[in-house]
Specification:
alpha+beta, three-stranded antiparallel beta sheet, 15 helices, flat, CHP02677
Length: 515
């Protein structure tokens, strides 16, 4: 018997999620784009060919060029992850060798793949959605419960759809309460001087407080009465009536289907119980008013006297960036960190509430001041010692060293690949492995991009600062080329490799081969 829905977290299989967590951006995006394309193609045909997948990937917004070999490698990887299943259409007509090959190149998402892709898509969309508080939410809950009671007596065929609506109502209430509590947490914990953060959460809390007396006070009793009527008819009896119309092909799934729907009805009733989530949400409204007032007071105090440590550093960074030269930036830095006092144009009045004295030069008098950065915010609760600013010097040095090594490799490969005019592929016999991989990848892309009108195709080599231009030679001719890894039998192609960077002088390589 499978795990109950409440224990879904115990059945997570890392294999089916690994393609979404790859460290390489291009590989992750290509794998995900293939899955998204197959998900849409699943509604059009039982299986899809390489051409169908490539066309659908362009439609969903994946613009990177992928060869058939790369696409087949992605499909093989997704097949190993149990998300995609290859098919062979034995009903296809054998019009020749091409037809036999085509019928073996069809793929479709597995059942696990469809569920995983849908779950990831929902998670991405929900994580980026705006805060929501739909009006008349309790009215929709009441309507769903009333439909269940009415259809149980008149039209049982609609009960499976009504039970699915129960799941939708539960998810809506969970999302609404989570958004409300998240807004309260942001108001308590975050920097209230951030206008965007404060404004968004303030509007969220105010809208919730406005809807509490209008929506919940009016509809809560009706929902409780509808749930009482539903409970009197029996949750399990209603679900057992609906199971005959659910379209379950396997009779063994009926009991799981019944148990899950009964649990959803029990969860919905628990939301509106005397000590349920809705009652707790209503009782937290008074705390929300207090939280909002405290946040407004913190914001007023912070704007009048300054913000917390993070806001101080932001203001200092803005000031440093606005300076015209390095000397002016150093003066601002020295003044901010107390290397020498700052000079202000106007001296405040005697009644001005200033935490520390200041140095001001607005007339004949000068006033000494101590300029410091606070260790914590002045208003609101302090949650312990302030964190140190991490030293990124070592990481920056390592990144610069890695970038320099990459640039050296690109220049070295460019010197190995640049040709003095148009040469055949045999010119590159004996080329080292790194440069060979870069060259063959660029040649493949350029060959696929050949313009029929000009007869040429160009591509920028990935890994070297060169442009590869390809022109077809004698059709049907294949030439063996010996490399350190073996012999490559390639079509007759004429290749021109030129530097991509301006001012780069081409390096002439001997006709015997590139070492």
């Amino acid at each position: 018997m499978p795990n109950p829905p409440r224990l879904w977290w115990q059945d997570i299989d890392p294999v089916v999620w690994r393609c979404f967590g790859q460290s390489e951006d291009l590989a992750r995006e290509r794998n995900t784009a293939v899955l998204a394309a197959l998900e849409e193609l699943a509604t059009r045909a039982p299986m899809s060919t390489l051409a169908d997948i490539t066309a659908q990937m362009r439609e969903i917004g994946f613009r990177d060029q992928s060869s058939d070999l790369e696409l087949r490698a992605v499909l093989d990887y997704l097949t190993g992850a149990l998300l995609v299943e290859p098919f062979r259409d034995y009903a296809a007509l054998n019009a020749g060798l091409d037809a036999v090959v085509r019928r073996q190149e069809a793929w479709a998402l597995t059942k696990i793949g469809r569920a995983v892709v849908a779950a990831v898509r929902t998670a991405v969309v929900d994580s980026r959605r705006a805060l929501q508080l739909p009006s008349r939410l309790l009215d929709s809950v009441e309507r769903t419960v009333r439909d269940l009671t009415e259809h149980a007596a008149s039209d049982a065929g609609l009960l499976p759809t009504d039970l699915d609506d129960v799941r939708t109502r539960l998810e809506e209430m969970q999302r609404v309460t989570a958004d409300f509590y998240a807004a309260l947490a942001q108001m308590v914990q975050s920097d209230v001087t951030d206008d965007l953060l404060f404004g968004e959460n303030r509007d969220r809390v105010i809208e919730a407080l406005r809807q509490f007396p209008r929506e919940y006070g009016r509809a809560l009793r009706r929902v409780e009465a509808a749930l009482a009527d539903l409970e009197s008819s029996g949750h399990r009896t209603l679900v057992e009536t609906a199971v005959g119309h659910a379209g379950l092909l396997d009779a063994r799934d009926q009991q799981d289907w019944i148990d899950e729907r009964v649990r959803r009805l029990a969860d919905l009733a628990a939301w509106f119980a005397p000590a349920g989530s809705v009652q707790r949400l209503i009782s937290s409204a008074a705390g929300a008013v207090h939280t909002l007032l405290v946040a407004i007071d913190r914001r007023y105090t912070a704007l009048r006297r300054g913000s917390d440590l993070a806001a101080d550093f932001r203001e200092l960074a803005y000031s440093l960036f606005a300076q015209p030269d390095d000397d002016a930036a150093r003066r601002v830095y020295a003044a901010a960190f107390g290397h020498w006092p700052a000079v202000h144009a106007v001296v405040g009045t005697a009644e001005e509430d200033v935490a520390h004295a200041t140095v001001a030069g607005g007339g004949t008098s000068r006033h000494q001041v101590e300029v410091i950065l606070r260790e914590h915010e002045r208003a609101g609760r302090v949650s312990g010692r302030p964190r140190k600013v991490p030293d990124s010097g070592a990481a920056r040095a390592a990144a610069l060293q890695k970038a320099a090594a990459t640039a050296d490799n690109r220049r070295r490969f460019a010197e190995l690949l640049v040709t003095d005019g148009e040469v055949p592929l045999t010119y590159f016999a004996g080329l080292e492995t790194g440069a060979l991989v870069i060259l063959l990848g660029a040649v493949e892309v350029a060959r696929n991009a050949i313009d029929p009108t000009t007869g040429h195709g160009e591509a920028h080599a990935e890994g070297a600062s060169v442009v590869v231009r390809v022109r077809l030679g004698r059709p049907g001719t294949r030439t063996p080329i010996r490399f350190p890894e073996g012999v490559l039998v390639a079509p007759d192609l004429l290749v021109t490799v030129t530097p991509a960077e301006a001012g780069h002088e081409p390096v002439t390589v001997s006709q015997e081969g590139a070492a």
